[in-house]
Amino acid sequence: MPDHTSRRTSQRLATAALVLPLAASPAFAQDQAIVLDTIDVQAQSNQGLVQDGYVPISGRIGAKSETPIVDIPQSISIVTQKQLEDLNPQAVDQAVSYVPGVTTGAFGFQPRFDAFYLRGFSVTYNGLYRDGLRQFASPNGQFRSETYGLEAIEVLKGPSGTLYGASSPGGIVNLVTKKPTEQPFREVMVEGGTYDRIQGNMDLSGPLNDEGTVLYRLTGVLRDSGTEMDAVPDDRVYIAPAITFKPTDDTTLTVLGEYMNASTGGSTFYYFDGTEVLDIPEPDPSYNEFSQDQWRVGYEFEHRFNETFSVFSNSRYAAVDVNEEYSGIATLTPRTHYAGLAQDNMNTFVTDNFLKAEFDTGIASHTFLVGAAYNWVDYDNYLGYGTLPRDGAPPVATWNESQTQQQFGIYANDEIEIDNFIINLGTRYDWLHADTDTAAAAPVEQNDEEWTYRAALSYRTPWGLVPYVSYGTTFTPNVGTLITGAPAKPTSATQVEGGVKYAIPGYNALVTASVYQIDMTDGVVFDASTGINEQVQQDMLNTGFEIEAVASLTQGLSLTASYGYNNIEIQEGARDTEGNKLNGVPFHQAAIFADYTFQKGFAAGLGGGLGVRYLGESYGDDYNIIKNDARTFVDAALHYDFDYRTPKLEGVRLQVNATNLFDERGTICADGYCYKDPGRTIIGSLRYRF
């Protein structure tokens, strides 16, 4: 009888070395084997993610176990470390702006939150994850993410409740923290750019002892910057220490920490008179501050008992405090202002623990997971309204709401390989308990429980194509209350998806195409069409299509190209919007970014990148009265690695990035309110690795 466990292990190790699953397939005869070029595979840490340039090779996203990306029966996009370095994004929404299915910029110039959509559904509150654990968000208390502290961003499309619990119907965006490296790594960087931006970065890592059993990493950012609006800074202090203990090859414990203080504006909008957005900033500079303190501490632990059993445990405690002082124009002539105060305090604890077993039953090879997860969040929200301090009646917090929410889930998933077929079957059961107390109503106790499911089938063809079909569901409690003061119902969603993945033989390239339908019930959305930014619940149906290609070739060329289509219909919503299209999400989106570096000759080391992002027409409100025109943005980069021609300057890189190069600043409307697109930014950086 063949040893299927050994075949699985060998296959995944081969994939990490870029020997594609095609060559490991039993159906592929020895005399047909494809010999691939030798490519330098990059793995920034020992936490399971393997990437080569712009191409993700394998990882744990979508399986919770090291798996080739082509074998995962769900659409996945990964913004790799190389992409992050080439784009040099200053926020998460910039980093994912070339990912198909992701819609950024729906609220124009908006530096306060990491706000964007995935497959037409917001991920701001329920779809952001950090290192595989949910990153909670309350109405104003949302954790910010420093992109310099990330080694990759993983985007798993569609409902994923069975493995990850609460998540957006559109999927999850997992932020992968930089973790200690086994080889010494040291980097310092200075940046400067538009709006008097000055920033310093450092990233230090490596072993702390001769045996290499204790590793460290220390990442930091210090930034002082303005923005296109005088009353809105973009200042930041960020420090993220990490330490890994690896006493044996079978045991790893990584402890992760972070502290960040960020300061921007409480209001970041331009005046909208109901018909057009004027080039007049809303906030009064004397009262417009959004200050945020956040910190987290957690661990990742894994231990392999033997060839069959392994255990994994991840936990994190995190807290965020927000003080938002905002102002806006009440009347234009004469110019008068209103003012408001919002304070959020949120504490969270999340943990996910599972046992993995790899074994055989006859001709089938299994990777079986069984686990338990627990999420806890406690938040307090204080609101107040008034006038500017100089007018004598500054806002005082008079409204309060608080909520404590606990969710416990148990789950199991079996990945079964039979020859070239891969079958995934999983289920999860979650219990929710929440207590909500508001100034508008008596305390409310909420209890819900729900099953979620996962079923998928993939097939490795002899030509390298891997077609798949999948079905998944999610059950997501919502933090916060509706306009009535009552807690929102949990959101549930189902997705049916079919697609194909193709790791092109002989090239470091991956193509993914998929069609899908997502049916969401009781989603929480915002509606500002009445003049009050209120939360309401809707049922929606999305039918869509995506295609993405990523490649990094040995000649110095890397590229990512994508197209996405979303058609989202409101099945049930507020104030007779049934049958309309969801606002803020374009029907068509396309993007391409290519970066090339000269490898030889006089220009060796010189390179540049050019990107184009197209966002098609969309509606600006759920009544489908306001319509957004199509928009096109161009991004560019120019860089030079000095060590190509001057060995003494090894590790020195000069780079300039321009976002929205041609300063296209149209009007974009969402939730019944209109904004201005963010203008052009140019950032120059000088990096030294040693």
UniProtKB/TrEMBL annotation:
Membrane topology: Multi-pass membrane protein
One Gene Ontology term, aspect cellular component: cell outer membrane
TonB-dependent receptor-like beta-barrel domain mapped to chain residues: 247-661
Keyword Oxidoreductase attached: no
Domain of life: Bacteria
Leader sequence residues: 1-29
Protein's UniProt keywords contain rRNA-binding: no
Domain TonB-dependent receptor plug intervals: 70-172
Keyword terms of this UniProt record: Cell outer membrane, Ion transport, Iron, Iron transport, Membrane, Receptor, Signal, TonB box, Transmembrane, Transmembrane beta strand, Transport
PROSITE patterns: TONB_DEPENDENT_REC_3
Record Pfam families: Plug, TonB_dep_Rec_b-barrel
CDD domains given in the database record: ligand_gated_channel
One biological process term in Gene Ontology: siderophore transport
Predominant subcellular localization, coarse grouping: membrane
Subcellular location: Cell outer membrane
Coiled-coil annotated spans: none
Gene Ontology terms for molecular function: siderophore uptake transmembrane transporter activity; signaling receptor activity
Family per record: Belongs to the TonB-dependent receptor family.
PANTHER family: FERRICHROME IRON RECEPTOR-RELATED (PTHR32552), FERRICHROME OUTER MEMBRANE TRANSPORTER_PHAGE RECEPTOR (PTHR32552:SF68)
Protein name (Swiss-Prot/TrEMBL): Iron complex outermembrane receptor protein
Provenance organism: Amorphus orientalis
